[in-house]
Write a structure and sequence with these properties.
Layout: H1 2-18, H2 20-26, H3 34-46, H4 66-77, H5 90-102, H6 109-120
Helix pairs in contact: 1-2, 4-6
Bound molecules: heme C.
Length: 123
């Protein structure tokens, strides 16, 4: 599993470096759209408008730049190195990421960052 993830990561870095047109071809097809995944999974903890949820200790996402989101989301998806995480509840997210993938709710990290930024960022 770890190996597969690092291959996927490697490939996406490669495509990132070689330009965007190529990225289209390499796109994995996900069962659900990014929006559906957010509405079904992330909303519980991060809120309808990315405002966060103190009860779940989930930080607001609506004040983050697209770069921060991308880093944070990639980090979470890779199992969490804590690079861009402001929280200490990393295991919460790690655990949840496993569930997310188990449920077939995997998503593209760039698209997710884009989605959250475009819909919720108020800056
Ligand atoms: C069970 C509650 C829960 C769910 C579901 C959840 N999160 Fe989180 N999220 C957290 C918590 C708690 C943190 C802070 C601790 C951490 O970084 O692990 C966090 C941190 C983050 C961060 C890093 C923000 C920062 O400033 O550190 C991002 C980005 C993020 N979540 C995106 C998502 C996305 C995208 C989804 C849906 C696929 C999702 N989360 C689902 C609870 C949740």
């Amino acid at each position: 599993m770890k190996k597969t993830l690092s291959i996927i990561f490697g490939v996406s870095v490669l495509f990132f470096a070689t330009g965007c047109e190529k990225k289209e071809e390499a796109k994995i097809t996900y069962k659900l759209t990014t929006e559906q995944v957010y509405d079904q999974m992330c909303v519980k903890c991060h809120g309808k408008n990315g405002e966060g949820n103190p009860k779940k200790k989930a930080p607001a996402l609506n004040d983050q730049t697209i770069q921060e989101l991308r880093l944070g989301i990639t980090d979470i998806k890779m199992g969490g190195s804590g690079v861009n995480s402001s929280g200490t509840q990393h295991e919460v997210m790690e655990h949840n990421m496993k569930k997310i993938i188990e449920k077939g709710m995997d998503y593209d990290t760039d698209l997710m960052a884009q989605y959250i930024h475009d819909h919720f960022n108020k800056n």
